[in-house]
Write a structure and sequence with these properties.
Blueprint: E1 8-13, H1 24-33, E2 36-43, H2 46-57, E3 63-67, H3 79-88, E4 94-103, H4 111-128, E5 132-137, H5 140-150, E6 162-164, H6 171-179, E7 182-186, H7 196-205, E8 210-212, H8 234-245, H9 249-264
Parallel strand pairs: 1-2, 2-3, 3-4, 4-5, 5-6, 6-7, 7-8
Helix pairs in contact: 4-5, 6-7, 7-8, 8-9
């Protein structure tokens, strides 16, 4: 991948997904050619953690990871799970806990179980000093209540408590989380022509609270809709935000990369 002067930072990828097995090296080469110099790989269930750690340890200059428990698996949030998570997140390569959160649209676990797990996981983020990577779908009201319960704003001695990944809520939700000390994740849907409401979210919170992410292999931008996503899509997302904010893509890259460095403690 690219050197330390590369412009872009992809804050959320799943490159250990089997869909990348045929050409993972080429995907990383294309990311570097697009100026994506850093990425955070997500391990959202314990079954993935070893593979995720091996992936980032092979790329110490360019990759870090988050380890967590997707809300699809929230019923696995036991005391023994939390003990294992605490041991794993002490590794230097682990810069966040995630993804964790609430999913009432597709999640197979009952909302009450999801909420109980999220409270425990967010309290762990707070107490262990690790940023949270939060997934939310169809549950923003409950997420707002839990965040307000767990995290005192502003974060002490840091800019962000975490990030609301792949934000899909209302502008008022985004403003709430930004004020509470969370970054807001911008993905491929921000490039869709009919998604003006999502671009309004990022106009409201501004570049100071935004990070870029692809969620690869999911959520391709407009130019790749219907195909597997890759980190090389980050400049297309940046270009959509540059238009929304009335600034250059270079400035978007500078600001969002600085935000990502502050979020993950990776300057």
């Amino acid at each position: 991948m690219a050197g330390p002067d590369a412009a872009f930072f992809d804050t959320h990828v799943h490159l250990t997904d089997p869909r990348f097995d045929p050409d993972r090296a080429e995907v990383l080469e294309r990311a570097a050619a697009a100026g994506v110099g850093r990425l955070v790989e997500i391990g959202d269930s314990p079954d993935e953690w070893a593979r995720v750690l091996a992936f980032v340890r092979a790329r110490p200059a360019d990759a870090r990871c988050a380890l967590g428990l997707h809300p699809y698996y929230a019923d696995q949030c036991t005391e023994s799970f939390l003990e294992r998570l605490r041991a794993e997140v002490e590794a230097a390569e682990v810069v966040a806990i995630g993804e964790i959160g609430l999913d009432y649209a597709r999640g197979p676990v009952a909302p009450d179980i999801q909420k109980a797990a999220l409270r425990r996981l967010l309290a762990a983020c707070r107490d262990w000093g690790k940023p949270a990577v939060i997934h939310c779908r169809g549950a923003y009201a409950d997420l707002r209540a839990i965040v307000a319960e767990i995290f005192p704003p502003p974060p002490p001695g840091r800019r962000f408590w975490g990030v609301v990944h792949c934000f899909s809520g209302e502008p008022e939700d985004a403003e709430f989380f930004a004020a509470a000390g969370f970054a807001i994740g911008a993905d491929g849907p921000a490039t869709y022509p009919k998604n003006e409401a999502l671009r309004e979210v990022f106009r409201r919170v501004g570049a100071g609270s935004t990070v870029l992410e692809t969620d690869s292999p999911y959520l391709p931008p407009q130019s790749r809709r219907g195909r597997r996503n890759e980190p090389r899509a980050i400049p297309e997302i940046a270009a959509a935000l540059a238009l929304a904010w009335g600034m250059s893509v270079v400035e978007v890259a500078r600001l969002t990369t600085a935000n990502a460095g502050a979020l993950f403690g990776w300057p």
